[in-house]
Amino acid sequence: MESAPKAPNSLSLPWKLRILLSLAGPAIDLVTRKDGTVNRCLLKVLDLLQVQPSSEPSNGVKTYDVVVDPTRKLWFRVFVPIQYAVEDLPVMVFFHGGGYIVLSPDFKLYDDVCRKFAKELHVIVVSVDYRLAPENRHPAQHDDAFDVLKFLDNEENRSRWLPENANISRCFMAGDSSGAHITHYVGLRASQFNFQQLQVIGLVAIQPFFGGEERTDSEIRLDGSAPILSTKRTDWFWNAFMPLGEPYNRDHPIINVSGPNAVDISEMDLPPTMVVVTGFDILRDWQIRYYEWLKKSGKEVYFVDYPNMFHEFFLFSELSESDQLISEMKDFVYKVLNKVY
Fold first, then answer.
1. pLDDT per residue over 217-247, tens digit each?
2. Closest by Cα among 119, 102, 86, 85 to 38
3. Hey, which bits of the chain come out as E strands?
4. How many C-beta atoms surround the C-beta of residue 36 within 10 A?
5. Cis omega before residue 5 (within 30°)?
6. From 177, 218, 230, 258, active-site residue
7. With pLDDT > 70 as the criterion, what percentage of the chain qualifies?
8. pLDDT at position 221, please?
9. pLDDT band at 5 (very low <50, low <70, confident <90, very high)
10. Which tens digit of pLDDT belongs to each residue from 290-331?
11. 281 is catalytic
12. Residue 110 has pLDDT above 90, yes or no
């Protein structure tokens, strides 16, 4: 099943988006240096695409920022849909993508999509700003994500920073790319931790960032032609992410989640998981293997495939598939909630 169904031979996209995507890969190459560092000065141009929180509702959602730990600049943005102010709402903790090296919850594309999640899924979204690599290497990002869960589980923090109708015993975790990588590993960690009230009941992994020593069919076939990612870039991201001085290859279990060194999760209480893949993503085969591994491990898992789409497609609202994903996520959320209640 590794790459079936087969994707079309080429992407069909609006011309403006096609131009934008053609610039994304070279932009990554510009800021990722050969010595393994990131040109943060050049990345300051992204500050122009940051948006401030809005206490006045925009598109039916108000937002505000919460600082968890100023010493490591750990914070999150809360998205509250105002039309459901009296209803008991689940919480969705979201982790953004960016290869572990760039982006944040206030980046406009992520602010927009989390606003849509809140409004359309009827959830309160907590979008986390974790520390970035290579300045902060694994496990810093996973620790930050887990510490946000513990912060939300604290009664004083919850009553101060979340709306009264936020139900953290109905908590979902979601993420895209590297954020989906966080979602899986922190989901495992959460399933083995005794929270006071918080309970993670579902995971959404949108095009999770996994890899391995083998070059898969999708990596070979799409390398250099699919937007955003290439094998050269993903290898660079892993080198920036993994701890210094610790020998590893790409079959390390933190990279190759379902590979020869995979953790046995068959006895772990991992919640239901929705896995999203696309046809024009070099990581496609690794994502399909992740889905098959979850299924083989006896987990409840749902597979959603967009053969005509690319890595991070859902961030672009002009694509109908972006709305389709929202609909698929809504179905998943309600399916899980109906089993819990």
1. 999 999 999 999 999 999 999 999 999 988 8
2. 102
3. 61-69, 74-81, 89-95, 124-129, 166-176, 200-206, 273-280, 301-310
4. 12
5. yes
6. 177
7. 97
8. 97
9. low
10. 999 999 999 999 999 999 999 999 999 999 999 999 999 999
11. yes
12. yes
Task: Give me the phi and psi of 56, to 5 degrees please.
Answer: -85, 130
Query: Around Cβ 143, how many Cβ atoms within 10 Å?
Result: 17
Closest among 143, 75, 137, 151 to 106, alpha carbons compared: 75
Q: Is 12 a catalytic residue?
A: no
Residue found under tokens 């079309």: 8
Per-chain mean pLDDT for the chain? 95
Residue type (1 letter), 162: L
| Partner residues linked to 76 by β-bridges | 66, 128
* Burial status of residue 85 (CB atoms within 10 A of its CB: 0-12, 13-18, 19 or more): exposed
Residues 34 and 115: their CA atoms lie apart, in Å, by 37
- List 69's β-bridge partners, or say none: 74
**Contact between 141 and 131 (Cβ < 8 Å):** yes
**Angle at which helices 231-241 and 15-31 cross, to 10°:** 50
Q: Is the model's pTM score more than 0.85? A: yes
Q: How far apart are CA 84 and CA 119, in angstroms?
A: 9
Concerning whether 3 is annotated as a catalytic residue, the answer is no
Does residue 37 surpass a pLDDT of 70?
yes
Q: Please pick, among 144, 176, 281, 305, the residue that the annotation labels catalytic.
A: 281
